[in-house]
Design brief:
Blueprint lengths: L3 H42 L15 E4 L2 E4 L4 E7 L2 E6 L5 H10 L7 E2 L4 E4 L5 H38 L5 H34 L2
Antiparallel strand pairs: 1-2, 3-4, 4-6, 5-6
Helix pairs in contact: 1-3, 1-4, 3-4
Length: 205
């Protein structure tokens, strides 16, 4: 005979699997898709459009007292003009180190060193180059969408396994598939908006 405590344990376990487990799984799905968006944002920030954007320096690492540090942690980065980035190290002795780091990052920019700061001048883009950058942007967007669809597929496969093992019903599975599709649509729309904004930035004269 099943004791009351055993019954409560099984009931609570099943409740967690069917309700709490779904909630946590949805949360994990969103967390994974958010990481895809974060990665997309990083990649898009490296695409140099016509206007100056400090984000193009995000991956520049400077050696500071033997430790590699992001350049924005050792210098103030500003945009005094539409096509100019100003890098002002907090320690004047770091100007040369920052210049070296920018050159090693192969950004296609030549820093102008005045002894106190570095000026990066962004050249105007011709129409052909703008079209190339738009194409590059779309490729990054498609990669992000593929990653999001893969997360959707993997997540639904997990629920299909649960349904096959009689852990959830067919109705539960259908409901979960619909919920996951809504999450997928949400993050796909975010990708589309990121691409739209970046393309406007690239094509802006």
């Amino acid at each position: 005979m099943l004791h009351l405590l055993d019954f409560l344990y099984i009931y609570c376990y099943n409740y967690y699997c069917i309700f709490g487990g779904f909630f946590m799984e949805y949360e994990q799905i969103e967390d994974r898709m958010k990481k895809v968006i974060e990665h997309l944002d990083e990649e898009l920030s490296l695409i140099r459009a016509g206007r100056a954007n400090p984000a193009i320096l995000n991956k520049v690492q400077v050696e500071y007292y033997g430790v590699m540090s992001p350049i924005n942690q050792v210098a103030t980065i500003s945009v005094p003009e539409a096509r100019q980035i100003l890098v002002t190290p907090w320690d004047r002795s770091m100007v040369s180190a920052c210049e070296k780091a920018i050159n090693m990052a192969e950004l296609g920019l030549n820093p102008i060193n005045d002894g106190n700061s570095l000026r990066l001048m962004l050249p105007e883009l011709n129409e052909e180059r703008r079209k190339q950058l738009v194409k590059q942007t779309k490729n990054l967007g498609e990669e992000a969408k593929v990653a999001i669809r893969n997360i959707r597929r993997d997540s639904i496969d997990e629920y299909k396994k649960m349904q096959k093992n009689s852990e959830i019903t067919e109705d539960d599975l259908k409901s979960n598939e619909e919920d996951i599709q809504k999450i997928t649509d949400k993050y796909t729309a975010i990708v589309d908006k990121r691409l739209e904004d970046k393309e406007k930035e690239i094509m802006e004269i």
